[in-house]
Amino acid sequence: MTDKELEAVMDGIQQAEAVREELGVALAGVGVTLPSLALDVPTVAACHAVPLIDLGRCNLETARRLAAVLRAAGTAL
């Protein structure tokens, strides 16, 4: 991997971490916490320039809260 490719990968990871944090804050603002919210390890390990964000696992109550927030947001559009 060239220095330029490595730089692109590192930039992608930093961007993904910033978006993960932004999503976590936005969800917390509406009362939803996804405890497993993280970067997708396989895409980070494979050095993808744009890693995925893993929304993780959540319990039924959290899934219900998320569904309610999404429904409310959908009707507001």
Please give a structural write-up.
- It is a single chain.
- The protein is mostly helical and 77 residues long.
- It is built from three helices and two strands.
- It has one domain (3-76).
- It has helices at 3-29, 41-45, 60-76; strands at residues 38-39, 53-54.
- The protein starts with a helix and ends with a helix.
- The mean pLDDT is 91.
User: What's the alpha carbon Rg, rounded to whole Å?
Assistant: 15 Å
Largest sheet: 2 strands, antiparallel
**Main sheet: which strands, in order across?**
1-2
Mean pLDDT: 91
Strand percentage = 5-15%
Whole-number count of domains: 1
Task: Give the secondary structure arrangement, pairings included.
Layout: H1 3-29, E1 38-39, H2 41-45, E2 53-54, H3 60-76
Antiparallel strand pairs: 1-2
Keywords:
elongated, 77 residues, two-stranded antiparallel ribbon
Q: What would you say about this model in short?
A:
Helix content is 64%, strand content 5%.
